[in-house]
Amino acid sequence: MSRRTPPEPVQVVKQRRDAALAALVEGVPYIGFLGVRFERLGDELTAILPFDEKLIGNPALPAIHGGVTASFLEVAAIIELSWAMIWADMESGTLDPLTVDREHLPRLPKTIDFTVDYLRSGLPRDAYARARINRSGRRYASVHVEAWQDNRARLIAQATGHFLMPQREGSG
Amino acid sequence: MTSSPDAPQRFIEALPFARALGIELESIGDGHARLSMPWDARFVGDPATGVIHGGAVSALMDTCCGAAVLSFPGAIGTATIDLRIDYMRAARPGARITAQAECFHTTRTVAFVRATATDDDEGTPVASAAGAFVIDRMTPKGDTP
Question: What is the mean pLDDT of chain B?
Answer without folding.
Answer: 91
